[in-house]
Amino acid sequence: MSSSFESFRYPSKAALLKKCDGLGLSISYLDNFDLLFTPLAVGDRQTPNRFAIQPMEGCDGTEDGAPTPLTFRRYQRFAAGGAGLIWFEATAVTPEGRANPHHLLLSKANLPDFKRLVEETRHAAAVAVNGSHAILLILQLTHAGRYARPVDRPQPVRAQYNPILDPLQGLTEEDPLITDEGLLDLQDQFLNAAELALAAGFDGVDVKACHGYLISELLAAATRLESRFGGLFDNRSRFLTETVQKIHEEFPGLIAASRINVYDGVEYPYGFGVDSEDPDQFDLWEPIELIKKLKNSGCALLNITMGIPYVNPHIGRPYNTPLAGGKSPAEHPLIGIDRLMTATRVLQQGETDLPMVGTGYSWLQHHWPHVGAGVVQSGGAQLIGIGRGAIAYPDFVKDLYEKGAMDPGSVCIGCSRCSQLMRDHGRAGCVVRDAEIYQLEYQQGRDRAKESEG
């Protein structure tokens, strides 16, 4: 059976498993997914179920980084939908670390707004489940690194020279790298943001180390020589592990977490977790060692992902339709899903007492709860994370609990329009399932892009 790309066309369990069998993939599928409604201990807290909302940026903050009514709406919908863990979107720790001018930014000035966001999110969850649904809230802290765009133009901050990525941004070796002193200052900013997150009422913070952003690039910075934060693995992992350890030690009321790339999909030595001879294959030796170091540093929760969206978006989020101007990958999306699940399974089974969130399920549409249950049962992950699927269908958990199934007419269709909204510098959401809010936004963004290209 062909392993080349094709869009989703599997309305039944039989059709999906037949395709998996033809591709030589072994994906577990349980008819009963009650296991996903069991609680899970995370640090000294507990999630009421195994459903996690992944961090998906809305690009709808104010100019100073505070949440807006659309931000409140998004998280209230997630909370009312019944998920046990909400992993809040990337929130910058410094103004120059924002990925766009409407990126969330946590500061002393807007702390009251974030505190209200936490309170209203928890209230929405409690009301939806008769006051007994105590959800876990994790805030993702970030610096966008080479993809920083805090104003209406790029302002990249690089950790290393990269002949694969630099030309895509018009960068050369003459453009500067962030210094070790700059990184030490930035580490202080992460700690300041963690303290503010605790004051806002979040249960934990994620030191974001994925998708090619600054800390993720540091993990791959093998060519950053004569640096405390580059070259050898212990140096490349230092910023992340030190920051996690300091958060764990200085703020014992917070869960220290991280969303990490375990495979960049970019040629060695410029990508993390990449086979040195074949960039199409992962090598988990360094990710395994990183997780051991993170655990020893006090990390209590991990979220596993892959890829760099600006280069190989299909690796981290398999889709049916590429972004405008993009191409469909050569591989079938199920191969990408299997890659994500395989790597996560190896890592989770190596550290069974460190909960990990699995990634990449939305493409499976109404089948993913069955596949997710199989993953949890086999020890391949302890939480199942949904990103694009939750934006399209925020009340999926409630439907699974009350009706025993998801509505196939409400699921994410992998059209990439939520990502396209971000690329077109608009506010991001589901254009298909939330058209009243986002259809006009999408069209306006496409019109602006065509004008600039023309």
What can you tell me about this protein's structure?
The protein has 454 residues and is an alpha/beta fold. The strands form two sheets. The protein has an eight-stranded parallel beta barrel with strand order 3-4-6-7-8-9-10-11, surrounded by five helices. Strands 1-2 form a two-stranded antiparallel sheet. It starts with 12 loop residues before the first helix and ends with a helix. It contains 15 helices and eleven strands. The protein is globular. It has helices at residues 13-22, 69-81, 111-128, 180-200, 214-219, 233-236, 238-250, 285-296, 313-316, 333-350, 368-377, 388-392, 396-403, 417-423, 435-453; strands at residues 40-42, 45-47, 51-53, 85-92, 104-105, 136-142, 204-207, 255-261, 301-305, 356-358, 383-386. Helix 3 crosses helix 4 (180-200) and helix 4 packs parallel to helix 7 (238-250).
